[in-house]
Amino acid sequence: MEDDTAAPLASVxxxxxxxxxxxxxxxxxxxxxxPNLSPAPFAxxxxxxxxxxxxxxxRHASSSSSSTESKFVTTATGASxxxxxxxxSLPGRRKSRAGIALRSWFLGQAFGTASLVLLYMAYHGRPxxxxxxxxxxxxxxxxxxxxxxxxxNTRFATVSAFLLTSNGTAYNIAHAVGLTxxxxxxxxxxxxxxxxxxxxxxxxxxxxxxxxxxxGPWPTAVTLLGLVLTATGQFTRSCAMAHxxxxxxxxxxxxxxxxxxxxxxxxxxxxxxxxxxxxFWWALGTQIVMGNRISLVGYAVVLWRFFSRRIANEExxxxxxxxxxxxxxxxxxxxxxxxxx
Length: 341
Description:
By secondary structure, the protein is mostly helical. The chain is built from ten helices and five strands, in the order βαββαββαααααααα.
């Protein structure tokens, strides 16, 4: 950095320096500069004051300490200023870093705690392992909604990308009903347990009794099917969001943006709306695992109505955006949600 107390500039004749002159100028610590003081070209020699050893040590110490600080932007006047702050990242804004951090921490805590409780209760044959299973699965779903958006469609990585509250009241009510049914089903079963199936009986240690109590009202194969559907649905939705990249949005777009492209490769070559497919079967899978007969039917009806209407509405705009190209793609690629062509 130049010293602010540099000596006045001395003008020199407008003639080229020889190689020896350049060498001498370098050895003497002088600098050849051309300040933008006048439109006419001229050359000047700026002679810098030699600084004392104490000043050099102070400058070295200052530069060493500043290496741990955040980067600053040097302005035209030589002053340093911090980089511009994105106003959207302030607390309470759409990209609030505090809000994102808090939600990530909460979801991580919920996932970790529920997973530990799930393992403990499943190991000891407690039927209510389904409750922490649902909490862990739901926490992972909402975290992946944001993370996938932040990774592959960064400009839309807002607080609402977690989908914790943006899905509406009906979404939260549906999950509350599912948890309530699961608790009531396993805390107050319709049929009284026989002595042979009681946890205090000697038959509790037999594998058949353990699996019967663990998997609850469904046969083991049905519960395993629910686990497969849950995992497949989550994987499919996350893959769809990642593959679509900037063309994916949680909100149906009514206008085509410059980076909006029709994605027909990858998972979109097999499923026309893989994110909807993923959520539909993920939701039904969770209810199967939880043993919720009533919620399973309710989820299936509500989600089918929602996606059938949303797909029809969305595809009207897609036909406008992409014309015959999308019409051909729609004809050749299924949705794979029952009764939705």
